[in-house]
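User: Sequence in, structure out. Go.
Assistant: Echoing your sequence, followed by the structure tokens.
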Amino acid sequence: MGFPDRYIASIGSTNLLDDALHHQTEPLAAAALAGDIGALLCRVKYAGGTLNRQFEGNAGNLAQLLRIWTAEVIRRGRSRRWVPENTAWDAQSAQALYRRVAEKSLAHWLDSTCKGCSGTGVKVLLGNGICTNCKGTGTAVIHGTAGLELERVKDMVSELSAISDSHSGRAGGLLRGSHA
């Protein structure tokens, strides 16, 4: 069972005791202690469909994540010189690009499941053929972008995955250390 699975299971815990016999909430503590934006990514992505949705999956967490991620995309876009910002018009256009990339990359990372096949990669209605929407990958295509913007969205989706994987690794290491 990977860290995301353990995290999801701990969110649904009915027992918040933390003693020698009860360890159900340890993944929550490990996620918090692992730090950085990964803890918030984990909370927004995995806690949204749980029974504890009022706290864990609330819109405030998503809004906070979007603010943090937008600032991070702006920082990365500027440092990587995605577009020139020589004039006021260029700077305004760059800000609009950074915001679109942040919003689209976060939305895709949070829910990249193909709606046509529900992530299976197989057409349901017409037999067992490959889904034409996702070409059998189970991952939705990023819509509404092309060219430079599409490439930047894909880059930032990859960055989000790397941040999440790194966070899960640190949190999983903390969990292993607590049972040693």
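User: And one key feature?
Assistant: Helices lie at 3-11, 26-34, 36-47, 53-56, 59-79, 88-110, 147-178.
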